[in-house]
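Changelog entry: the GNAT family N-acetyltransferase record was regenerated in this release. Current contents:
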Amino acid sequence: MSIVVRDVREHELDSVLALNNAAGPAILPLDANRLRRFFRTAEYFRVAERDGGIAGFLVGFGPDAEHDSGNYAWFRERYPRFLYIDRIVVASRRRGGGLGRVFYADVQSHAELRYPHLACEVFLEQGNDPALLFHGSFGFREVGQRVMPAHDGQGHDVRAAMLMKELCSYAWVRETYGERLPDAPWISQPRIGGGTLPATGTNGH
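Regenerated C-alpha cells:
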C-alpha cells in the first residue's frame, strides 16, 4: 500500500500522542495539552498514513513561533531564519522502511521555499550512531552541542548534537520570487490551527 503524507487532523491528536509516548527514550514525552499547543502553533505538523492508520508524524516550527523548547531557543539565538524539526516519530512496526526519508524530503520541500536552513538535534546517547548517520547522509552537519537538563528532574542530563542543513534552493527561490511565491496549491501549506500558510517567503508574519 502507498504512503500518504498529509496534514494532521484534530481528531487524530490522541493517536499521535500515543505514538509519541511509545517511541522510547530518543523522543521526549508529551501530554495532551502540549500536543494541542503544537497543533495550534506549529508551522508544519504532518502525519504519514499507511493501510488506514497513522504510521508516523513530524512537527516543525519557524523562527517566530511561540515554542518553549530549549533546543529551539538555542538555534533562535544563533540563526535568524530556519525551520526547526522538533520531533519525528515513526511507529515501531514501520521503522526501517524509508518513512523517515519520506518525511525529511517532504519537510525540506516546504522549508527550502521559505528558509535558508533546516535545524534539528540528535541525542548523543550510546548506540545512537544510526540517527547521526541518517542525518549526516541527508546533508545535516553539527554546528554545536547543548547539554539538556534532566526532564522534570528525572533521569540524567543529555548532551545533544545541534544539526543544521543549508537549503541550497532557498537563495534561488528568494532571488527569483522575492517575498512572494507563486499561488499554487502545492506551495500553500496548512499551518497554525489548521489554517493556511500564505505563499510567502516571510512565514506569513
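The two ends are 39 Å apart (CA to CA).
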